[in-house]
Amino acid sequence: MDQSTQKVVRRSLLGTLVFAGIAAVFAGPTSASSDAHVVPPFAASATATKPAGDTEVAVLAGGCFWGVQGVFQHVKGVSSAVSGYAGGEKKTAEYEMVGTGSTGHAESVQITFDPRQISYARILQIYFSVVHDPTQVNRQGPDSGTQYRSAIFPTNDEQARIARDYIAQITKAGVFSTPIATRIEPGKSFYPAEAYHQDFLTLNPHYPYIVINDLPKIDDLKKMYPDLYRAEPVLVKARKAGQSL
Fold it and tell me: Which H helix or E strand runs over 111?
C-alpha cells in the first residue's frame, strides 16, 4: 500500500468507513440521505456588476473537498475545480499537517468558471443548497475540525460583497432553522492538494465514504438545477501534461 493510499484509508477510518461500509453492503447506494435545502436565488436588486473577463475564480470550503470538487465538476460553465487548502500559510498546505486542525487551513476547492454562463451568485446558490450544510460549525457530516469549516474565500471585493449580502438574504428568508456559520475570509491564498485527492469522487464512485456522503450531492444538483447540471465532469487529470493546477 503506497503512502497516498494509506492516507485515504486512514481518513475513512477516522470518518465513516465503518458505518458507510455496513450501509453500502446491506442497503446499497440508494440508502444515502440528502441534506439539500431550497435556497432562493440572489436578490435581483443586489446583483453584481457585469463580468469583467472570460473567467472568474471562486474558492469555497464546505467539508471534505472530495464532495465539493465533485459537485462543481458537474456544473455547466465551470472549466476547472481543484481540491486544495486555503486559510493558512503555504508551508503548512499539506494534508497531514492540515489534518491536525492547527494550520488555519480549510479543505477548499478552487473553481474557475465563465461568468457569462454562470454567475458567482449562482455558484454560491449551489454551495449553500447542495454542496454542504452551512449551519454546521467546524464540521460536515462525519468530519470534524476547523479544517472542515464552512468558509468563503473571496478573490475580490465584489465577491466579498455578494457573499455577505447573500448570507444576509438567506438568513432573513429563514431558509435554515439555525444560524449560518459560513465565514467570509478575504485575502487568503489557495494551494492545490496532493494529486491523489484530485478527482477522487469520479475515480472512486463505489468508495463507501463517497457513496454515503457525496453521491447524494450529485443527485441533488441534477434534480434541483437541471439547467446547470453537466453529466460529464471536468477533471483535473484531464488537463494537458505540464499544465499547472
Answer: strand 106-113
